[in-house]
Amino acid sequence: MYMNINFLNNIEYVDFDKFVYTGTGSEIDQKHWIKKKQLRKEDKNHDDLIASKLISEGIDPYQKDKREIAFIGTLTQTVERITAYRNSNVFRTVHRRNYSQIQKRLKAYLSAFPANQQLYSWSVRWGWVHVSDYAKQHKVFKERLSKLLRTLNRWGLEGQFLRIEYPATNGEYVKLHAHLIFQSHGLKKDWKDILTFSKKFMGVDGNEQNIQTQRIKNRFATASYLCKPNNLLELSGQALAILFQQLGEGGSALRFVEALGGFRKFNAALNKQGQVIRENCGKYIRTKSKPKNIYKDYLSSRVPGHHGSTQNVILGITPSRCVGSQIKEPCLMVKNYNGNFEDLISQHPELARIFFIKNNTTVTPPPTRQGRPSNKAA
After folding, report:
1. Comparing C-alpha atoms, which of 219, 147, 144, 220 is closest to residue 183?
2. Organism's domain of life (predicted)?
3. How many Å apart are CA 345 and CA 118, to the nearest integer?
């Protein structure tokens, strides 16, 4: 790392037991809430269509042991049901979940750089790839990028982040390209010479217009853009099924994101301490990656429902977030929720003690005149 900055110490650490309740009962801005709802709707519509195409090709898009996960607000008892798709990034909801932590880490990391620090974003195009040849071309592209990164590092451009993506076109092809973030630390070659070499090195069929560069001005917007999901709706059902198999699930051998340079060290330090980055009231903080004490003991057992029932299986507890309203509240993640909140709590009395007694509130907090839960009850 070329900067004398202790990144972790510059990011506040907050205990999870405290963080999980932060902001409980408060409301987010209405415009932000409307935008969030619209994004969720678009993601759901996208994934429903993707799932339908896969089913038509004989592929089951759902997880074996569950078809749906319910997020239940512990103040309002509002329920948001999320379809439990297989762990493939062809689904936007899965992609956002898988990329959520790396995006938060990237934003927190970039925010530590002084405003005058030169950071650059590169877009490197590989070209159109047939879905049946995707895995092979992905690996070739990744190897070529790795060689380019080593050369540029010797010339004073240190790579910080790499993301490979594959937006689709109509038919059976996807557009394979990559986004990179570089930190400049004293260039040893002229910028024009660096670009000329890079374009020639990464050229495809003589195309030397395959690299676009720009200095990063809005670091948060850049991090969000670089982690956005792909749009695959234009692929035919057969092509989508082939790409689904090419991409693999979970621990696929294909690498789409790589932390480089100082960002890699930043990630390693977080992982060593068992910490993650979370957003808290407009800023980024550190907290433990898993709940401790009673949270850890209770949730790690994945306790089933009452008398071994497969209904109302608790999967986890989220920090305060918005579910079906603008109100922020901790949420229960429940598999096979039967729709009866009182039944859920009666099956899991430990949760009632954790949430409602600790918060000095009842299962249903007293409403305000507008019918909303009172902030005082949080």
Report:
1. 219
2. Bacteria
3. 53
